[in-house]
Amino acid sequence: MSEVYAVRRTRLRECCNAGGSAAALVSRPANVRYLAGPAPEGAVLLLGRTDDVLVCPGTPDDRAPGTPGSRPDENLPVRLAPGANADPALTAAALAASQGADSLAVEEHHLTVSRHRAIRSAAPTLRLADIGGAVEQLRVVKDEEEISCLRIGAEIADQALGELLESILVGRTERHLALELERRLVDHGADGPAFPTSVGTGPNAGRRGHRPTDRRVEEGDFLSVCLGATYRGYRCAIGRTFVIGTAPADWQIELYDLVFAAQRAGRESLVPGAACRDVDHAARQVLDSAGYADALQPLTGHGVGLEIDEDPQLAPSAMGKLDACVPVTVEPGVHLPGRGGVRIDDTLVVRPEADGGPELLTITTKELLAL
Amino acid sequence: MSEVYAVRRTRLRECCNAGGSAAALVSRPANVRYLAGPAPEGAVLLLGRTDDVLVCPGTPDDRAPGTPGSRPDENLPVRLAPGANADPALTAAALAASQGADSLAVEEHHLTVSRHRAIRSAAPTLRLADIGGAVEQLRVVKDEEEISCLRIGAEIADQALGELLESILVGRTERHLALELERRLVDHGADGPAFPTSVGTGPNAGRRGHRPTDRRVEEGDFLSVCLGATYRGYRCAIGRTFVIGTAPADWQIELYDLVFAAQRAGRESLVPGAACRDVDHAARQVLDSAGYADALQPLTGHGVGLEIDEDPQLAPSAMGKLDACVPVTVEPGVHLPGRGGVRIDDTLVVRPEADGGPELLTITTKELLAL
């Protein structure tokens, strides 16, 4: 794995040098992990003029290590900040100056104003520049190792969801169902949930990001569930909607079929070279033309990886095109206030048609199940 | 409750006016909650020259509301940012300028450099100042309503821990025990865990912030558990260490007695007017004089409230004194690499001796239980 991190750092270095900075300080946790492997909380990476260094908080030895079984790139020198309350970013900046750099690119979208000022004081000879979203852009296209982590995470989420569907649901609360799903994710080998598990019943079903309440599942309800596993740091999402009871009502079948059609249209438009806004449009216009424009969300999907919500965004104003090997969610939904709604969410990887088209990672059935 | 929020805002306004700013923008989530009540994620508070306004993200109506059963101060006008991707802070800054303010105090320790720059562009006539930790300082001393939330949270954590102790522990993994504790917290009415539940067995026991692994509980192990409940936004902590099996070894009894003595010394020194560093010293010197100086943590306790780690810090270099009605943890510990260790953590409220001295919120026994 060490080589992978070194290659990534080289790419970032080229990017910084092109921007006129000899050194870069990476502080955003997912970016540090991408470039240095699993590192202790609060660690920062210095891409130095001569050497790269991982600077970790100066906590005592009995501090908990990172994710079990994982560690940072072993070829990367590690320094400790001088004390538990010292900011590793200041150590890194001083190190950059001592290596003879005259400018340092930092992540202005992650550093607070106070921290930026402290870095300036710690290394007054350095000109501070902005690295912008350079690391985030490198992270968009995944290698097969990364996709494999997402694939395993998706399998785990499928398993957890599948087991829940075999149990009795009526009478249980949204909160209990969500907790049980999260326990099952861990049972099946996830590091943990990829994001807070969402379970919505009845009028809450289909709400994006709904936080589970004490409402109990009742006969005739829509039940929507959205969960994901984190596996080796990589996060995926799956969302499904079910009907509770033997016979879905007509309005439920109609709404489900509509959202399903929208989600399929989005999935089918995932080809390398497609504009992100066109994928969004493909899903959105199905709902739009059925009169649900107002119920629509700001986006119908987004990238996933070390964070659950990464570039690219599938939204009306999104810029840019999809590349092969970019994993995204496709997750349109409709929620009718007071009645509930439907959300269907898959994680897929963009692949060329020659390779069989988009690779579906979350394979739980999307038939409307009556449970 | 509305009056409470209004009084808090008045105190902050006095603080800002004294600092020369007519208006303030509060963005740190716990600070927004303190001054405006439970608000949607991403909301910011403008303490304006003429009016106070809560500015929320412009998400569609079916966006999940805040914590169930709670809502922001109803006397506070609410504005929406113009779109789901628009930053409410920019709307708030423009509003401040339109009210005729010439300067705006912002939270430089929370705003990123990029966001600060965007605020400057959105309201170029405003001089941006730093409000510093003004809201955090207001939050240190709690009112009885806040303490009551902490007390209920502590009861919930005590219940969850008590139930776990009645079950069979040998053979179960740290991860499963942690998940079960979190489920029980929610069962008993918590909003959720106050922080990731820590369960450490054998060589992992006593590690501060240990993340649960797949190690199983064995006969003869130390088992240390640290958990907390969030109740109406308020977070408490309890930590206990147990021995698994019928007879603790001599070294286990000795180590336990030592940490217990240190923790008691810390608790007993919690009086209004005590210097924070003296409370730390009281606990620390017990371990120190027994030769465990190297194993010590940077702090032996900290404030709790809307966040799990607030001012004051109980640490050797801490400044300031304790006031009545300040809730703090007292949590010394010793961890011996390869062997495990002991940590004991309580949440208490500083009270004058006339009122009976420090109020212990977490009442689970601190006897060394052999389970």
Topology:
The structure is a homodimer of 371-residue chains.
Chain A: H1 2-18, E1 23-26, H2 29-36, E2 44-47, E3 52-56, E4 78-80, H3 88-98, E5 103-106, H4 113-122, E6 127-130, H5 134-139, H6 144-165, H7 174-187, E7 192-193, E8 198-201, E9 222-227, E10 229-231, E11 234-235, E12 238-243, H8 250-268, H9 276-289, E13 301-303, E14 310-314, E15 327-330, E16 333-336, E17 340-343, E18 346-349, E19 359-360
Parallel strand pairs in A: 1-5, 3-4, 5-6
Antiparallel strand pairs in A: 1-2, 2-3, 7-10, 8-9, 9-12, 10-11, 13-14, 15-18, 16-17, 18-19
Q: List the uncertain runs of chain A.
A: 61-69
Determine the CATH topology of the largest domain in chain A. Creatine Amidinohydrolase
Give the ordered list of helices and strands of chain A.
HEHEEEHEHEHHHEEEEEEHHEEEEEEE
Strand order of the largest sheet of chain A: 4-3-2-1-5-6
Counting DSSP H or I runs of 4 or more residues, the number of helices of chain A is 9
Radius of gyration of chain A: 23 Å
Distance between the termini of chain A: 44 Å
Mean pLDDT of chain A: 92
Largest sheet of chain A: 6 strands, mixed
Structural class of chain A: alpha+beta
Number of domains of chain A: 2
Question: Helical proportion of chain A?
Answer: 25-40%
Describe the oligomeric state of these chains in a short phrase. homodimer
**CATH top-level class of the largest domain in chain A:** Alpha Beta
Give the strand tally of chain A.
19
- The percent range for strand residues of chain A is 15-25%
The fourth-level CATH homologous superfamily of the largest domain in chain A is: Creatinase/methionine aminopeptidase superfamily
InterPro entries (chains A, B): Creatin/AminoP/Spt16_N, Creatinase/aminopeptidase-like, Creatinase_N, Pept_M24, Peptidase_M24B
Keywords (chains A, B): Aminopeptidase, Hydrolase, Protease
Domain Creatinase N-terminal (chains A, B): 8-141
Domain Peptidase M24 (chains A, B): 149-351
